[in-house]
Design goal:
359 residues; alpha/beta; 11-stranded parallel sheet; 11-stranded mixed sheet
């Protein structure tokens, strides 16, 4: 269920950046879509240039990890052995265990170094919410695999219940999150996150200035939920990730204070619904049309062709922009839809297989 790096790179070469000759020697070439950057390949892994080699503390078991986190000081790196496979299932049920990372601490693995996939942390319990909680500012999670309990979309099961009970029915069933943070300055990079029925990464109010980059995020696709990255009244830069098997690769509640920049991401074709999302007041039933503060979506490659690329379900307070993306769609209404306003500027994107540029 994973794409090899070679396959992903072939996809990127075939469907990403198109170079337009510069008008002058000093003007840089115009680029469209996602491409590897100075830190390495989209999605991280082999070739990523910020892999941590070792830590201040090295652990290989759950108990060692918990002790290291309890004793950790600001600036320390806790490294989980690359061969470790930490199953939290029993302890989530018996102890309601949540892995808590204090402020200023880095939790690291070696994904991408010498063929390593990185340590695996996982739970098979459907109501693992969350597996990891960030409890202080400026935490980094890097080079790990975080696997959740539910890779399924569950379209048929939840359709019947939704028809009987409405949207709240989705939360009547156990849901799971990989990482939850309400703390500023979180960085999640070079990780593989999969199988989380609510969100792989849930950024709550207070988690401002988060950066989520060079991750492979997939199989977060449950009907009515299913987010790669979800924001609520907070801000983030989301870049150089690979998303696949999602309901929304990026979603946001649209409450005031919600803003994100999504750039240089590769959005693969397996989607349950539209790829990038910003909710509006109608979703929240708060009597407004507010869809967050601001949104910027640029230099992404969208391979999804049977779902809308981007939906903004209201009016961002400060507006927004959608530009220099590559879409397989040829019709603007399949690429971008906005309700309750038109203050997001959509321009300079490439459409269809012939890469037509439209302003």
């Amino acid at each position: 269920m994973r794409y090899t790096l070679a396959v992903i790179l072939l996809v990127v070469v075939a469907l990403t950046a198109t170079q337009v000759p510069a008008d002058t020697a000093t003007r840089p070439a115009e680029r469209f879509g996602a491409a590897p950057d100075e830190l390495g390949p989209l999605g991280g892994g082999a070739g990523y240039r910020r892999i941590i080699d070792k830590g201040d503390v090295r652990v290989a078991t759950i108990d060692e990890l918990l002790k290291a986190l309890k004793d950790a000081r600001v600036g320390q790196v806790i490294y989980i052995d690359d061969k470790a496979q930490l199953d939290f299932s029993v302890r989530v049920v018996v102890e309601k265990l949540v892995v808590e990372i204090p402020g200023g601490v880095t939790l690291a693995g070696g994904r991408g170094r010498n063929g390593s996939e990185g340590a695996l942390l996982f739970s098979d319990v459907l109501d693992t919410r969350p597996l990891i909680r960030v409890t202080g500012p400026n935490v980094r999670i890097t080079g790990l695999r975080l696997r959740g309990p539910d890779v399924r979309a569950r379209l048929d099961e939840l359709a019947r219940v939704y028809n009987e009970m409405g949207r709240e029915a989705y939360y009547r069933f156990p849901v799971s999150d990989g990482v939850i943070s309400a703390q500023p300055g979180l960085e999640v990079d070079n990780c593989e996150l999969s199988g989380w029925s609510h969100a792989a990464i849930f950024l709550q109010e207070g988690a401002r200035d988060a950066r989520v980059h060079h991750n492979y995020i997939h199989h977060c696709q449950r009907r009515g939920l299913g987010y790669g990255v979800c924001l609520d009244a907070t801000s983030a830069v989301i870049e150089s990730n690979i998303f696949d098997y999602y309901r929304h690769a990026i979603a946001a509640t649209g409450r005031p204070g919600t803003r994100y920049e999504a750039r240089n991401n590769l959005v693969l074709a397996n989607a349950v619904s539209h790829a990038f999302d910003m909710h509006g007041g109608g979703d929240r039933k708060d009597g407004t049309t507010i869809a967050g503060d601001w949104i910027s979506i640029h230099h992404n490659t969208f391979q999804v062709s049977d779902q809308v690329g981007i939906k903004v379900r209201g009016r961002p307070i400060e507006g927004g922009e959608v530009h220099h993306n590559v879409f397989l769609h040829t019709d603007l209404k399949d690429i971008y839809r906005q309700s309750s306003g038109d203050n997001v500027r959509v321009y300079r994107n490439q459409y269809g297989h012939d890469r037509e540029i439209r302003d």
